Amino acid sequence: MAAYDYLAEWFEFLNDDCDYPKWSQYFIEGLRSLSAGPRGLELGCGSGAFCRILTKNGYTMSGTDRSAAMLNKAMRLAREEGLDIPFFQADARTFRVPSKFDFILSPNDCFNYLAGRELPGAFRHVSDALKKGGIFWFDISSECKLKQKVADTGSVDDRDEVTYLSFGRLDGDTVISDVSLFVKEADGRYRRYDETHVQYIHTEEQILAALSDAGFTVLCTEGHLHTPKEGCDRLDFICRKV
């Protein structure tokens, strides 16, 4: 099955160690320092964790993802928290919006799922969706992380409710991960679900060139949560539409 068809239901549960509140505060403080307006879009929103937290902090958020399963989970979680957040299905390579946003966030390696040749066009679509002077803030999983921590290695997360297994392999500039979930059912048996994730390795230089082609000024590049770039797992790009 395609990426996140089954993982969507368990994504936030299995990522409970990533500290979404702290990560969101990183964005909130940064957006305030950049005097970004209140209307934002999360591109590749997944199950909507950042949308929910930013909405609770006064932002008017929308979310988009190409995974229907992720969007269904995002809508369900937002309703459970009493939040009215519009979510819609779209692909970063082709999306259009009826009105422009003050900022667009795309955390958690959305653009690693696009090939290098697709980045300039995707960034142009982002530019078209932003107001002049709008902020575009996204990250990628670094070349170091994908080659040394994902490719040619395995990852296991064993819980009472679900067991997650992932085995990655390197193919040129691509890392292909075979993911299996073993989900516990009411009778105590486990049902297996399999899906494949394909991520592309991008260098900082490739990203900067594509952003320049799309008309962005890069304000800052840094490691996750203000950490140094060298050897980082996640590299952030903070940009402004010219």
Summarize the structure in short.
This protein is of the alpha/beta class and 242 residues long.
Structure overview:
It is a single chain. The chain is about 30% helix and about 35% strand. It is α/β, with parallel strands linked by helices and about 240 residues long. The chain folds into two domains: about 5-140 and about 200-240, 3-Layer(aba) Sandwich (Rossmann fold); about 145-200, S-adenosyl-L-methionine-dependent methyltransferases (N-terminal domain of TfIIb), CATH 2.20.25. Strand 6 (about 155-160) and strand 7 form a beta hairpin. Helix 2 packs across helix 3 (about 50-55) and helix 5 packs across helix 7. The chain is globular and about 55 Å long.
Q: Strands, helices and their partners?
A:
Blueprint: H1 11-14, H2 20-33, E1 39-43, H3 49-56, E2 60-65, H4 68-80, E3 87-89, E4 101-106, H5 119-128, E5 130-141, H6 143-150, E6 153-158, E7 162-171, E8 174-184, E9 190-200, H7 204-213, E10 216-223, E11 234-241
Parallel strand pairs: 1-2, 1-4, 2-3, 4-5
Antiparallel strand pairs: 5-11, 6-7, 7-8, 8-9, 10-11
